[in-house]
């Protein structure tokens, strides 16, 4: 299961400790009772008529000793019980945050802040969601960023940091006072918001907010059945067990060897820094995207895309359509989908470069392993035609998967 201990393992360890202590406590309760009965009989036999006073004194002594023993025996049980209650409370709060779409609760939120974090509202499905969407190739959206900070609604020109997905802009001080972003996340925002890779605000970064109440309930029930504890890291064995359970529930069969390799490949894609575990937010976002793929049509996913995302998709398609006939190959479309996960070197970026720029896959990017390179070679032979509308529909899920600021690949292309 790995060297690191997950929160689930910690809870199981506490539960086992509590059971052992409870059994020991019950033994202490029984022992004084037996001794008290025997000694009372001896006092009655020896003292005759005066045995009542001696019996009362004996009972008092044994009661005091029993109370003392119980206090000594119950001390570790109380500590274990308190620890277990604290763990359960933390888990319940984590489930509440998961239901509300907050994902992970930063430590800064435990402090009192002047500004209140936003209340998220989950979307509702519309009757027209599955109908085709007309997104012209030759007409760009060219969205304009908001002029005022989304938090304080004050305009301060160059001090505002834009989101690369939506039109919202923010002051770094407002985000810090709101306490919704950690210090590390704030520093990343300052470094990337004005670059070509850009920065996703807390609305766009959390793709879990795309799920409806019903979809989120279904996902949470799956987590509970698999004993997945929110906000805990997962090692590869836990991800495999989770996938085995889901496959058994959905298809009444076990994972094949090839499917297990796919799971391990996805684990590696979610662990770009090779820590041996995947963060809760990355696991949650990956499962969120799996739900979207399962329950939503491609047309409904296209409707979720923002104007900036549609513009970026146009730029990618037009860069591949060299003869300008509105058609590219399926292999080119697949390679373009992997480009959404490529993060350009921060040091070489300029704020004057278009947000729709997409660079080539570098050797150090998550999509550059030997298996991916062999797959890229296979793509070169896929010359099936792909129109703009087909390209946009098939790419929608990959564009959404690239929203998080994480460097992890939240959708691993099949081998």
Automatic annotation (TrEMBL):
Comp. bias intervals (Basic and acidic residues): 61-71, 88-111, 123-133, 372-383
Naturally occurring in which organism (per UniProt): Triplophysa rosa
Source lineage: Eukaryota, Metazoa, Chordata, Craniata, Vertebrata
Name the UniProt record assigns to this protein: EF-hand domain-containing protein
Matching PROSITE patterns: EF_HAND_2, ZF_PHD_1
Residue intervals of the EF-hand domain: 308-343
Family annotation (InterPro entries): EF-hand-dom_pair (IPR011992), EF_hand_dom (IPR002048), KIAA1045_Zf_RING (IPR031946), Zinc_finger_PHD-type_CS (IPR019786), Znf_FYVE_PHD (IPR011011), Znf_RING/FYVE/PHD (IPR013083)
GO MF annotation, one: calcium ion binding
Biased composition (Low complexity): 362-371
Keywords: Metal-binding, Zinc, Zinc-finger
Domain of life: Eukaryota
Chain segments carrying region Disordered: 27-75, 88-139, 355-384
GO cellular component: cytoplasm; nucleus
């Amino acid at each position: 299961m790995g060297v690191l201990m997950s929160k689930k393992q910690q809870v199981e360890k506490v539960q086992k400790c509590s059971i052992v202590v409870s059994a020991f406590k019950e033994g202490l309760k029984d022992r004084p009772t037996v001794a008290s009965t025997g000694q009372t009989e001896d006092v009655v036999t020896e003292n005759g008529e005066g045995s009542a006073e001696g019996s009362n004194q004996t009972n008092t002594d044994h009661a005091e000793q029993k109370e003392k023993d119980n206090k000594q025996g119950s001390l570790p049980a109380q500590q274990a019980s308190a620890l277990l209650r604290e763990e359960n409370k933390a888990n319940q709060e984590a489930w509440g945050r998961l239901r509300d779409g907050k994902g992970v609760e930063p430590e800064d939120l435990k402090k009192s802040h002047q500004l209140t974090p936003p209340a998220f509202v989950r979307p509702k499905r519309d009757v027209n969601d599955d109908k085709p969407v007309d997104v012209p190739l030759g007409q760009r959206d060219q969205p304009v960023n908001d002029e005022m900070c989304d938090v304080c609604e004050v305009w301060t020109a160059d001090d505002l940091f834009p989101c690369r997905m939506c039109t919202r802009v923010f002051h770094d001080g407002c985000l810090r006072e709101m306490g919704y972003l950690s210090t590390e996340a704030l520093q990343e925002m300052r470094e990337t918001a004005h670059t070509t890779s850009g920065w996703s605000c807390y609305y766009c970064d959390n793709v879990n907010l795309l799920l409806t109440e019903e979809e989120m309930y279904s996902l949470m029930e799956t987590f509970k059945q698999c004993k997945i504890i929110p906000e805990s890291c997962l090692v590869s064995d836990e991800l495999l067990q989770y996938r085995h359970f889901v496959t058994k529930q959905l298809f009444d069969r076990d994972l094949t060897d090839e499917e297990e390799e796919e799971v391990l490949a996805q684990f590696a894609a979610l662990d770009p820094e090779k820590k041996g575990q995947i963060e809760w937010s990355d696991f949650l976002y990956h499962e969120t995207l799996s739900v979207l793929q399962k329950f939503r049509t491609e047309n409904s996913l296209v409707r979720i895309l923002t104007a900036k995302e549609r513009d970026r998709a146009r730029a990618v398609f037009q860069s591949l359509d060299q003869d300008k006939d509105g058609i590219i190959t399926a292999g080119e479309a697949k390679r373009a989908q992997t480009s959404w996960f490529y993060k350009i070197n921060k040091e070489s970026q300029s704020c004057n470069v278009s947000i729709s720029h997409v660079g080539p896959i570098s050797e150090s990017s998550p999509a550059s392993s030997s298996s991916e390179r062999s797959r890229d070679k296979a793509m070169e032979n896929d010359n099936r035609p792909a129109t703009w509308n087909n390209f946009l529909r098939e790419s929608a899920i990959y564009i959404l998967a690239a929203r998080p600021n994480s460097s992890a690949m939240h959708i691993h292309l099949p081998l």
